[in-house]
Amino acid sequence: MHSVCAMKSIAFVIDLPKRHDHPLTYFPRQTSLICNVCGLLRKLYPTYVCVTCNFVAHNDCMYFPSIIKISRHRHRIAYKSSLRSGEWLCGVCRQNIEIHYGAYSCDKCCDYVVHSICALGKDVCDREDFEGVPEEDDIALGVESFYVISEGVILHFLHDHHLYLKVSILYDENKFCQACVLPIFQGTIYSCINCDFILHETCAKFGRKLQHALHPHPLTLRHVNPYEYVGFTCDACDRYCGGFIYGCHLKECDFDLDIRCASISEPVDYQGHKHPLYLALNPEEKPGSSKYRVISET
Ligand SMILES: [Zn+2]
Ligand SMILES: [Zn+2]
Ligand SMILES: [Zn+2]
Ligand SMILES: [Zn+2]
Ligand SMILES: [Zn+2]
Ligand SMILES: [Zn+2]
Ligand SMILES: [Zn+2]
Ligand SMILES: [Zn+2]
Fold first, then answer.
1. Which ligand is nearest to the CA of 217?
2. Which pLDDT does position 224 carry in this prediction?
3. DC1 domain: from which residue to which, for each copy (predicted)?
4. 15 alpha carbon, closest ligand
5. Which pLDDT does position 290 carry in this prediction?
């Protein structure tokens, strides 16, 4: 043992009926065992085994939350120690899931499953356990950003005056949409008659809240005036910009997306590539590249 490890006290037997039916015994030689919960082989992690069932789990994997909310799916997903036989693709990394290892699955959609470690990734989940918490709390999404005053007239919650639907025919280089900060070309816009506030019709339709694949919590819409030079840096594209922003500043979060990045959802149909595109888990870590990930035993 490392001297540091020798000084740490490690329970020899642990009993967590929620994760496994039998008490588990500490297994001192760890380098060759794949954990049944996370499906990974990790060196130097305290590992426990059940000899009766040939079950292996890392110490910290046994405390994985049971029911979680992830950014990539609209329902909560629940931990399962194994999956029904069949071909399963992870909803996050799109790689195969080996059925004998733990995974999270959706009880509402019969085919949505995620590797345990993909489900618990930093951008995907904050690891809060929703076991026993009623699900209605999640549905504050889908609230519209404007009230319809009359046909073609709206009141947007981020502007004090009424906005009128118009068709823009001329390109004016001084006119920008206040949401996406892109120029106004031909097309339908909402414009204010009291001031120069303009929105593309499509930009006016962004809801007050958004669940985005890049953040575990719902994001809230706000307006940063680009003319006051108090812009912000988008956490997805790293551009400094203004306009409408979806952000999360709950708990320890400090996360902001500009409207352009916020409007991207998976999968992306990019005309330069023949297959649909999905978000990478971590830009530095390519999906499925982990040396020890069990993708398939065959
Ligand atoms: Zn594990
Ligand atoms: Zn057992
Ligand atoms: Zn995965
Ligand atoms: Zn679902
Ligand atoms: Zn716009
Ligand atoms: Zn106005
Ligand atoms: Zn961006
Ligand atoms: Zn957050």
1. 8
2. 83
3. 18-62, 72-119, 157-204, 214-262
4. 2
5. 43
Distances (CA, A) of 171 to 30, 110, 181, 275: 66, 49, 14, 35
Q: Per the structure block, which two tokens stand in for 72?
A: 């990539």
Rounded to whole angstroms, the Cα distance separating 242 from 205 reads 18
Q: Residue 257 has which token pair?
A: 């997306």
For ligand 2, the distance from its centroid to the CA atom of residue 12, given in whole angstroms, is 16
- CA–centroid distance, 245 to ligand 7, in Å, is 9
What type of residue sits at position 48? Y
CA of 162 to the centre of ligand 6 (A): 7
Cα of 160 from ligand 6 centre, angstroms: 6
Q: Are 78 and 102 in contact (CB under 8 A)?
A: no
Q: Are the CB atoms for 158 and 244 separated by under 8 Å?
A: yes
Contacts of 22 (CB under 8 A, 6+ apart): 50, 52, 53, 55
| Number of the ligand closest to the Cα of 72 | 4
| Residue type (1 letter), 79 | Y
Rounded distance, CA 9 to CA 162, Å? 66
CB 214 within 8 A of CB 279: yes
Map out the domains of the chain with their CATH numbers.
3-63 (3.30.60), 66-135 (3.30.60), 146-204 (3.30.60), 209-262 (no CATH)
Give the Cα separation of 278 and 124 in Å (integer): 14
Structure tokens at 177: 């949409």
**257: buried, middle or exposed (CB in 10 Å: 19+, 13-18, 0-12)?**
buried
Ligand nearest to the CA of 181: 5
Give the pLDDT means over successive 10-residue stretches in the chain (298 positions).
73 84 84 86 85 89 92 91 91 90 92 93 89 70 85 94 90 86 88 92 92 90 73 85 88 88 85 83 51 40
Alpha-carbon distance 57 to 60, whole Å? 8
